[in-house]
């Protein structure tokens, strides 16, 4: 099959089924392989791009669209952007000392426009919606996906419809979706019902699905790997440690690192460590038992962003972790909360519980001897802690109530050994 070529946007790409290799038309609004139901993947003409991208990229500011030659957008005038990507890669010296790691970094994805990495994918997914000329963008979610979709839909002037399971309406979490003007519908059923309905609706010509099945979101998310490579001065880390829910993001990072190698920009590929919560660990089980994934029906964890029993992208993620010689591991909720506090107190980075899972892994498994003190380790802090202030307050010391005079305050501080 020949690569399609377009003016102004990305120049060479094709969309293939990752199971059977069936090519899918790039202007078709499809989410899965029409032949076998497999997940779709986007490929570029890396040989042609290898000669040009380094020069093109060198003059552009860090961010998702810096890498437009490797994004599947055909018309760059349609771009829907609110400043996604270009997040800090923080060298964590104080936390690194605690963990006996000289080169520990945190990629601070909470500083994206709506407070999570989901924005990297939505900027591309919603731009595709404009290309497909659909008006109604839809997802099932109570978390960061809906926050992000609602913002990008608003920016594009499109409708956003969010389906949430009735009775489990955590309105605090949906504050963003509501304020960005999404139509939020509580379905009389559970999350699986909500997802089934959005999948059904999205086959209509005027609806477009932006749940994890959407192949274009991952294309935007892979740019975080390109940024890390650049922020480390043109090298990839030895280890990339990342929380795993639907398993799209870990697959996207791996794709980014593979593409850097295909373009001849890096040789090494990092080992990937996917971290799940013990209460929602289907990929850890499948990995350790060397078998296909069995969905879990009952999942519970404080890290709500990774409270997922049936990860859509598990095949992509399993392939990535195995190819990288990495692993999946789980941590319990106490470890996650402890890691969240430690990251905040040592480095000033407030991430939501899911985003602290990689640090929890390091705190728990540093003594396994897997990682050398000199290795370059990047942990992805996937979302901002302000998304979930309830958890932070619940596990923190409550403020003391003291009489309103400085003597009483001083006495109190002495008692708490602060002065
Ligand atoms: C969505 C999300 C995750 C999980 O990412 P997947 O691609 O579903 O594995 C982790 N952390 C945060 C903060 C998220 O919003
Ligand atoms: Zn197929």
If you had to describe this structure to a student in words, what would you say it looks like?
- It is a single chain.
- With 419 residues, this protein is α/β, with parallel strands linked by helices.
- It has a domain of 192 residues: Rossmann fold (3-Layer(aba) Sandwich).
- It is 37% helix and 15% strand.
- The chain has 16 helices and 13 strands.
- It has a six-stranded mixed sheet with strand order 4-5-13-10-11-12, with helices on both faces.
- Bound molecules: pyridoxal-5'-phosphate (PLP) and zinc ion.
What is this structure, in a nutshell?
With 419 residues, the chain is of the alpha/beta class.
Defining key terms:
419 residues, Rossmann fold, 16 helices, globular, binds pyridoxal-5'-phosphate
In terms of topology, how is this protein built?
Blueprint: E1 13-17, E2 23-24, E3 40-44, H1 46-50, H2 53-58, E4 89-91, H3 93-98, E5 103-108, H4 118-131, E6 136-140, H5 144-156, E7 159-165, H6 175-179, E8 183-187, H7 191-201, E9 207-209, H8 215-221, H9 223-231, E10 239-243, H10 248-262, E11 271-277, H11 282-289, H12 314-323, E12 327-331, H13 333-347, H14 353-365, E13 376-381, H15 389-394, H16 406-415
The protein binds pyridoxal-5'-phosphate and zinc ion.
Pyridoxal-5'-phosphate binds next to helix 10 and helix 14.
């Amino acid at each position: 099959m020949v690569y399609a070529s377009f003016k102004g946007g990305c120049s060479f790409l094709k969309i293939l089924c990752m199971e059977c290799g069936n090519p899918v038309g790039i202007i078709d609004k499809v989410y899965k392989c029409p032949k076998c139901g497999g997940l779709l993947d986007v490929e570029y003409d890396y040989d042609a791009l290898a000669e040009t991208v380094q020069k093109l990229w060198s003059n552009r500011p860090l961010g998702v669209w810096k890498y437009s030659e490797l994004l599947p957008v055909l018309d760059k005038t349609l771009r829907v952007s609110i400043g996604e990507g270009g997040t800090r890669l923080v060298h964590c010296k104080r936390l690194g000392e605690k963990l006996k790691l000289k080169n520990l970094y945190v990629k601070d994805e909470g500083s994206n426009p709506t407070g999570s990495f989901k924005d990297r994918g939505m900027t591309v997914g919603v731009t595709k919606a404009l290309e497909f000329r659909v008006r109604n963008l839809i997802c099932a979610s109570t978390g960061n996906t809906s926050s992000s979709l609602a913002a990008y839909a608003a920016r594009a002037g499109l409708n956003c419809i969010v389906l949430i399971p009735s009775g489990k309406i955590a309105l605090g979490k949906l504050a963003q979706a509501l304020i960005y003007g999404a139509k939020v519908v509580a379905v009389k059923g559970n999350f699986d019902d909500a997802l089934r309905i959005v999948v059904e609706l999205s086959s209509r010509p005027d609806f477009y699905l932006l749940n994890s099945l959407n192949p274009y979101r991952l294309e935007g998310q892979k740019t975080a790997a390109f940024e890390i490579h650049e922020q480390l001065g043109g090298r990839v880390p030895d280890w990339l440690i990342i929380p795993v829910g639907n398993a799209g993001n870990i697959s996207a990072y791996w794709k980014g690192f593979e593409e850097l190698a295909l373009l001849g920009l890096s040789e090494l590929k990092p080992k990937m460590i996917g971290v799940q919560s013990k209460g929602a660990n289907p990929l850890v089980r499948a990995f350790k038992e060397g078998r296909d994934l069995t969905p879990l029906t009952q999942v519970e964890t404080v890290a709500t962003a990774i409270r997922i029993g049936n990860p859509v992208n598990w095949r992509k993620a399993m392939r990535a972790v195995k190819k990288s010689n990495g692993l999946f591991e789980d941590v319990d909720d106490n470890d996650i909360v402890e890691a969240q506090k430690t990251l905040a107190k040592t480095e000033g980075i407030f991430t939501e519980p899911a985003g602290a899972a990689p640090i929890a892994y390091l705190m728990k498994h540093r003594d396994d001897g897997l990682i050398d003190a000199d290795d370059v380790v990047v942990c992805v802090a996937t979302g901002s802690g302000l998304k979930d202030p309830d958890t932070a307050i619940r596990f923190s010391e409550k403020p003391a109530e003291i009489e309103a005079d400085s003597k009483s305050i001083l006495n109190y501080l002495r008692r708490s050994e602060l002065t």
